[in-house]
Design brief:
Length: 99
């Protein structure tokens, strides 16, 4: 399992565009066999902050996802929408609880 996390701050005038584009993007992501989980979050107190949480079966699934057309299109939207470069990277689970 491969976990990817990214957080970034959007330009205020681009928030609605970004949110609108997330829906068709996730519809395409849902068709990918190797994507186990993909969620977007928006900060409750400051709606310019967004977080993406992604879980892939393995590195091969991530690479396949990364090279897809819908990712290319969404990256263009993000480049236009984000005010600055965010923080992103791969994470390793060390402890958890789930109910």
């Amino acid at each position: 399992m491969l976990i990817f996390y990214g957080v970034g701050r959007a330009k205020k005038e681009k928030i609605s565009l970004l949110e609108k584009e997330m829906v068709p993007f996730l519809e395409e992501v849902a068709k990918e066999d190797g994507v186990l989980e993909f969620k977007f979050f928006k900060h409750k107190d400051d709606p310019t902050w967004f977080l993406a949480y992604e879980v892939y079966r393995d590195e091969e699934a991530f690479e396949k996802h990364r090279k897809s057309q819908h990712v290319d299109k969404f990256v263009e939207v993000m480049m236009e929408s984000f005010a600055e470069e965010g923080i992103r990277g791969f994470w390793e689970e060390i402890a958890s609880i789930q109910r």
